[in-house]
Q: What sequence folds into this?
């Protein structure tokens, strides 16, 4: 797998530092509250599990699986589908949506609107990676781990065709890997 990576964008050490910083910021923001962290599967699972180790307040979490890609696509279709919905009610809750990467903004735009209809008390967004050059839908990202350039990245939970999620860093996938399949 490592031989398919053109370059490492975010090292294991940088990942750890970003998670620690974000965890401290979220601890301060939600002191005295019991926020519900909503992990957007599958890409954000590794990030959320590492992140919440640094959140030093009572909190709960749930999982939601949505897709705007599918299969071997490397760009979003813009059609956001809910594959697995939440098991927890959002009514009156302070919600923190945890995402692996903000790209076009389609997914989070749809989720914020959906969560508003479910009467969440507040909704904040935390994303490990931010790729602002690709933004189409404006979404306010409250907490960002690392800002990256426009590149197709894998690792640390992010995949290409369900592979590379287990890499301990974020790397740029060589174009010949996904252009020949």
A:
């Amino acid at each position: 797998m490592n031989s398919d990576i053109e370059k490492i964008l975010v090292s294991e050490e940088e990942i750890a530092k970003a998670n620690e910083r974000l965890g401290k910021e979220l601890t301060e923001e939600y002191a005295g509250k019991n926020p519900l962290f909503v992990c957007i599967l599958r890409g954000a699972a590794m990030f959320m599990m590492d992140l919440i180790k640094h959140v030093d307040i009572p909190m709960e979490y749930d999982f939601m699986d949505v897709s705007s890609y599918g299969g071997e696509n490397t760009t979003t279709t813009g059609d956001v589908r809910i594959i697995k919905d939440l098991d927890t009610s959002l009514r009156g809750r302070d919600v923190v949506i945890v995402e692996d990467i903000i790209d076009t903004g389609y997914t989070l735009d749809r989720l914020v609107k959906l969560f508003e209809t479910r009467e969440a008390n507040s909704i904040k967004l935390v994303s490990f990676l931010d790729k602002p050059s690709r933004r189409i839908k404006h979404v306010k990202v409250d907490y960002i781990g690392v800002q990256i350039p426009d590149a197709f990245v894998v690792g640390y939970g992010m995949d290409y065709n369900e592979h590379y999620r287990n890499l301990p860093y974020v790397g740029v996938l060589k174009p010949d890997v996904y252009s020949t399949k």
In short: The beta strands are 5-10, 36-41, 60-67, 81-84, 94-102, 122-130, 143-147, 153-154, 170-173. The mean pLDDT is 92. Residues 12-150 form a domain with the Rossmann fold fold (CATH 3.40.50.2020).
